[in-house]
Every structure is written in C-alpha cells, then in structure tokens.
Amino acid sequence: MKFGSVDHPEAVDFTLPPTHPDTTALLRKQHKGQDLEVFVGCAKWNKQDLKGFYPRGTKDELTYYATQFNSIELNGTFYNSPDKQQVEIWKAKTPADFKFFPKVPQTISHYGRLLNVDEKMIAFCDAIALFEEKLGMSFLQLHDNFKLKDFERLASFVKKFAGSVPLAVEVRNAEWFANQDAREKLYKLLETEKVANVIVDTAGRRDMLHMRLTTPTAFVRYVGANHPTDKSRLDDWVERIQEWRDAGLQALYFFVHQNVEIESPLLSTYFIEALNKALGLQVRGPQHQLFT
C-alpha cells in the first residue's frame, strides 16, 4: 500500500491526535459492560505479497491464513467484484469465527464515481451477503479526487445502501479534512445512517487521522512504514483503544498494511498480543513463530 508513504518516516510526528469530543460523546451513549468485539488482520492473503509467511508446501493460502488470524480486509474485491460462487468458496475455507471485510469495487467507487452504479452495487451486496455470519463490514474507499462538491452524490449512495450491508466510508481528498463545515456535514451523515467513518493512519496523510467515530465501531486502516517506529505507533493505538473501550466502544476492526506487505503479518501479530495483554482480551492470532 503506497498511499501516504514517505521517504523519511523518522521525520514524521506520529503522535496520535486527541480523541474528537464528539467521539467521546457518542461512545458514552453506549451500553457499558459488554465485551469488545475485535477483528485484526492483514489486507490480503496473497502468497507473493506475504512471502515467507506461509509454510513450505502450503496449498491453499486462505485456508492457512484463516488459521492464523480472525479476519481479512478483503482488498481483492476492489479490483474484481466477486460472484456468489466465489463468496461461497471463500466462506467454506474459513473457521466459524472468521470474518471478511470486503472493499466496494472500483467500478462503483472510482470508475463510476457513485453515479449509475445501482445495478453493480446490488450485485456486490447480493454476493457478499452469502458470507452470512462471516461478513464483517464492507467499506467504500472514494477516489482522491472525490471532493466536497460531490457530497450529495455520496449522501444519496449511503442512504440507499447503508441498510443493505454493514458499511464504512473512507474519504481521501484533503478538502474534506481542511474544511470544518464539510467535515461536520459528512460526520452527521455517517452518524445518522449508522455508517462507520474509516480512520487511516499513514505517514504522509496525518489529516486522515481524524479520530471521529460515527458509530460505536472503530474501523482503522493502519499503514506501517517498514520502519522501527511501526511498533511504537501500534503501542499508542493500544492505549487509544483502551480509552475508547472504557468510554463505550463496542467493536474494533483494525487492518495492517505496509508499503512492503511482507511485514504485515508480523505487525498484526504484535498488535494482537499487545492488545490482548493490555485489555485482557483473547483475540486469536498466530501461535508459532512467523517467517521461520
């Protein structure tokens, strides 16, 4: 994942910004005392990207991956919208506690730009619905040039499909974060429609680290820099999740990317172990040394 990459990550201030006050207010409305649902994983299971992760002789990458982690950010659906048969095959290869988080296809988000895409979106929803209990949440990532002027198009799309599948939205254009009125308008839309507001932690786009939840679910896409700072950044996230859990957070969906993806399983494992220790959780992760 090259988005937001920088040549000198050591020069970046990786301090997490404070929790947005509206996030705190939203979480405090939630029922306290229930267990925090946590799903942590990588963006893909492709053997070429995760070279060294799979034991020699591994015949089915997804089947093995699903024994190590409890979820996958299904980036592959961005490039090819799955048909129903493919979804059923993927579902059958994974254990009962595993969940998929499929990305809305680029034919809808980028090429179609949310215009005249109902037929494609319905087909996507019908297919991923076959994940049944293994469907976590789909997410819509908008093109970097999808700007404030396109708000009504986004609003129409969200209102039409948020009731069909669990949905999260990631906006990328800097205008959304630089304009306070636009931010608040977007956050109000997502909160009203019960759509998660994706948080992106990447070196070159610290503005996307908005810390504004619009549901009691935190959907975080963490992009490491293949640098020693990656682990200390994850330590900071553990502290933040603990803060949010205490305030009323109900679910965490946390997916680890890397500019060079080979290290994603290592960082995911590090985060799972740190989170389990700090919060007293039992999130499933690899039980053996990776990359042996």
UniProtKB/TrEMBL annotation:
<dbReference type="Pfam" id="PF01904">
    <property type="entry name" value="DUF72"/>
</dbReference>
<dbReference type="InterPro" id="IPR002763">
    <property type="entry name" value="DUF72"/>
</dbReference>
<dbReference type="InterPro" id="IPR036520">
    <property type="entry name" value="UPF0759_sf"/>
</dbReference>
<protein>
    <submittedName>
        <fullName>Uncharacterized conserved protein YecE, DUF72 family</fullName>
    </submittedName>
</protein>
